[in-house]
Write a structure and sequence with these properties.
By secondary structure, the protein is mainly α. The protein folds into 2 domains: 17-269, no CATH class; 312-380, no CATH class. The protein contains 15 helices and no strands. The chain has helices at 3-15, 29-49, 57-81, 89-123, 125-155, 163-192, 198-212, 217-232, 241-259, 261-265, 269-311, 317-323, 327-337, 340-359, 366-380. The two termini are 32 Å apart.
C-alpha cells in the first residue's frame, strides 16, 4: 500500500465521510433528549398557536408561505457550503428541526419570557426596552441551539468531527430557529392588531425580517458552534480552547449588538441608520474568517482522499488544489481553464469522485469506477 493510499484511508476513517446517519437510536440517551426537546417544543408550539389558529389563520398561513420561500435561497447557499466532507441531508434536517422546534419553543420562549420580566423589574421599562433583548437572547438562544450540535455528536460521533462540521450544523440549526421565530413574529403581530389586515402585516414583517435576515441566527449559530467544536477538539490537532471560547463569545456579542441596536445608537438618527450596516459588515467579516479557519481540516481530508487519483493520472494538481481549496482557488482554476462551464463540471466530477471513494471506504466500487470514468471523460473533452 502506497503512502498516499494509507493517508486516504486514514482521512476517510477520521472524517467519517460517507457514513449514514440514523436519528432513531433507542439505546442512546442523546436520542431521548432530542425527542424530549422536539416533542416538548411541538407541544408548546401547539399550545401557543392552537387557541387562535382559526381566527389568525391568514397570518399563520401567510407567515409559513412567505418564510418558506425565504428558506429556499438559504438552503441553496448552505448546500453549496456543505462541500467538503459533506454531512448527510438527514443529519442537517435533524439540526434544522431542533433549531426550529426545540430551541425556539421548548427552551428559548419560556427562558426569554422569564428573563425579560426580570430585566424589566430590575432596570425599569426604559432600560428593558433598550437592553433587555440583547442581554437575554445571547445567553438563552445560543446555548439552546448549540445543544442540538451536542446531541448530534452523541447520535453520530463519527460524522461530527471538525469545526467545519460545527459551522454547517450550527448554520442549519440557526436557520431553523430563524424561520420558526419569524413565523412567531407574524402571529404576534396579528394578535397585536386584533386580526386586522393580517396578510398585509405578514408581508410587512416578512420584508422587515427578510432584510435583517442578512445577518440572522444562522450566522450567530455557525460561529458559535464552530467555536464549540474547537473547544471540544474532536479531531486530533484541531483543539484550540482560547480560539473556541473567543469565537463563542464573539457570536454572543454579535447577537447582543444586533438585538440592541436601538440602545447602542443612543437615539441618534444618523447613528441608528448607519449602525446596522457597520454591524453587518463586522459580523460578515468575522463569519468568513471563521469559515476559512474551520475549513482547513476538511480541506486536508478531501485532499488526502483524492491524492491517489493524482498519482493514477485521473486528476491533475491544479484540479486537486481547486476542489480541496477555498473560493479563490476555484476562481483561479476557472481562469486557468479558460472555460467556466468545463471548470465547473470538472470540479463537480472531482467532488463526486471523492464522495464515492468515501462512501466505498476507499475500495473500488461501481460508484467509484463510474465517477472516475466520468472525470476522465470530462478532462479528455
Amino acid at each position: 500500500m502506497t503512502a498516499a493510499k494509507s493517508a486516504q484511508l486514514d482521512a476517510i476513517e477520521r472524517s467519517g465521510w460517507g457514513l449514514p446517519f440514523r436519528l432513531v437510536q433507542p439505546h442512546d440517551l442523546a436520542f431521548w433528549v432530542y425527542a424530549l426537546g422536539v416533542g416538548g417544543g411541538a407541544l408548546a408550539m401547539f399550545r401557543y398557536f392552537g387557541p387562535g389558529a382559526r381566527f389568525y389563520g391568514p397570518a399563520l398561513t401567510g407567515g409559513v408561505l412567505l418564510f418558506g420561500l425565504y428558506l429556499i435561497p438559504w438552503l441553496l447557499l448552505l448546500r453549496r457550503h456543505n462541500r467538503y466532507t459533506a454531512q448527510p441531508g438527514s443529519l442537517l434536517a435533524a439540526a434544522f428541526v431542533w433549531g426550529g422546534v426545540a430551541a425556539t419553543f421548548f427552551v428559548a420562549l419560556p427562558a426569554n419570557t422569564a428573563l425579560l420580566e426580570i430585566w424589566a423589574k430590575a432596570g425599569g421599562t426604559v432600560f428593558a426596552q433598550n437592553w433587555a433583548a440583547g442581554l437575554t437572547a445571547p445567553i438563552t438562544e445560543e446555548p439552546a441551539k448549540a445543544l442540538g450540535l451536542v446531541l448530534l455528536i452523541g447520535l453520530a460521533p463519527r460524522l461530527v468531527r471538525s469545526a467545519y462540521d460545527g459551522f454547517i450544523i450550527g448554520a442549519f440549526t440557526g436557520l431553523g430557529f430563524q424561520v420558526f421565530e419569524d413565523v412567531l413574529y407574524v402571529y404576534n403581530g396579528a394578535t397585536q392588531t386584533f386580526g386586522v389586515g393580517q396578510l398585509g402585516a405578514s408581508v410587512q414583517i416578512f420584508l422587515l425580517r427578510g432584510v435583517s435576515g442578512i445577518v440572522p441566527h444562522a450566522l450567530f449559530s455557525a460561529i458559535f458552534c464552530a467555536g464549540l467544536m474547537w473547544v471540544l477538539g474532536r479531531t486530533p490537532g484541531e483543539r484550540d480552547v482560547p480560539r473556541g471560547v473567543l469565537t463563542m463569545l464573539a457570536a454572543m456579542v454579535f447577537h447582543f449588538a444586533w438585538d440592541d441596536m436601538g440602545g447602542l445608537s443612543g437615539g441618534i438618527g444618523i447613528v441608528a441608520v448607519l449602525l446596522p450596516f457597520v454591524i453587518a459588515a463586522v459580523e460578515l467579516t468575522a463569519l468568513f474568517s471563521v469559515l476559512r479557519h474551520a475549513a482547513r481540516q476538511e480541506q486536508a481530508w478531501i485532499r488526502a482522499v483524492l491524492e491517489p487519483e493524482v498519482e493514477n493520472g485521473v486528476l491533475d494538481a491544479p484540479l486537486l488544489d481547486a476542489v480541496s481549496g477555498l473560493r479563490r482557488d476555484r476562481r483561479k482554476y476557472r481562469k486557468q481553464t479558460r472555460d467556466r462551464r468545463k471548470a465547473r463540471h470538472l470540479l463537480e466530477a472531482a467532488a463526486d469522485l471523492a464522495h464515492e471513494l468515501a462512501r466505498g471506504r476507499g475500495q473500488e466500487t461501481g460508484g467509484v469506477e463510474h465517477a472516475r470514468a466520468e472525470l476522465v471523460r470530462l478532462r479528455g473533452s
